[in-house]
Amino acid sequence: MFRFTTAPNAELHTAVLHAFGEANERLEIALTFDDVHRELRRHHRPVSDEELTGALAGLRQWGLVDTVQRHATHHTTAADYERENLRHVLTRSGEAAVAATRHALKVMNSTGSLDTATLDAIADRLEELHTAETRTYAALMELEGHLDAFQTGVRLFHGELTRLHDQADRDTVAHLQTFVSDLDTRKHRIREALAKLSPDDLHERALKNAGVRDERQWRQERADRWRTLQAWFDGPRIDRLEEIARTAIVDLLRTLDRISEQRRKPTNTAADFRALAGWFARTSSDDEAHELFNAAFGLWPARHAHLQHADGELIPSAEPWHNTPAVPVSPQLRRTGRQEHIGATGKVRDVEQIRRARREQAQRERHELELAWQQLQTDGPIRISSLQQLDHDTFDRLLDLVGRALGAMPDSTGTRAASTSDGRVHIRLRNARGWAKITTQRGTLSGPDYVIEVQRR
Description:
alpha+beta; Arc Repressor Mutant, subunit A; 3 domains; 4-stranded antiparallel beta sheet; two-stranded antiparallel sheet; 18 helices
């Protein structure tokens, strides 16, 4: 049936078949020789009579085109008889070949997708089959058409996953996220509709309006399609598809992040080395490869032309480097490709004054701390309200101690205990009725009164 695609003049044979297909869509079944010429000029290109005669002969030989005669008119010459009396029509094989080539072109030009609208259409048709009586056959055919579209989209999408990773974009990710976002609801809706239907009863109702010749074959085809539908939505296929889609979303997002990261970087080292490998593969000799290596990795003398011998006047400037004495290269230049810059020695700072100031500050802080603890130390339990006047630093120490005590768990008597971070000062605190007010140079603080006991260790 498809020998016309591999035989000589395959393009012309395909164009002739499509000319018949275009005419059939306009209900022009039989075409004369001139009609075929006209269709080719419209959709393909003008051809000579010899080319068209050979193409029609080949299609007749392969059983794709048949020739019938029309005896209603008289012809004066054999040429007129050939051109006007003989009518060319597509055979069943020819019609199948036209449909197959159109389907092949459609698949080649289409892209895979996971369409939620198709799932909704499948669910709608299943629910309609449960209630409809008069249009059962039409709804069943529509259901099978939606199932075919869904399977085709899934198959093409799965085959394009690798290409999608190379051409990842935000729209693709958004499309997949839309598909999986409500997939659980859609698949449960389809499963519930499938569970309500009996395939035998459904096919019996549809057969009343089918008008088929071979009922047994029709029932077998419908049963096979129904099993395919059940395999998709009653079996693990739809769950596997959801898993693939979610995995694809993660992979595509990672790819987009990697692409964005590469775009943010000033250079892409991996891409540079891949390009360099391609250049090395195109070199024709070792000398060219060495020359490319020197240029790529900066090993030409001009890169470090500032290196020179101790007495440069003894060596002519045109003398090749391999004929001259070696030039010492610093370790930094060998390691990083950059020459170190030696500047003036920095001044040595006199830190004795800084150390003296820090010692004085430390002594002053210790003295202030000792004074604050002396003011807070009590001979026994006292109420906070009895501390009427405190300097601000001592007040900060008191607040820190009280906060530590309130953060501790009380014992059986309701007393809370805490210590400073160095363990030198210990406080015991328990609740007391009343209200306390403490005044410092910066203001007055009022709050619940407590009984405290502060001791130094």
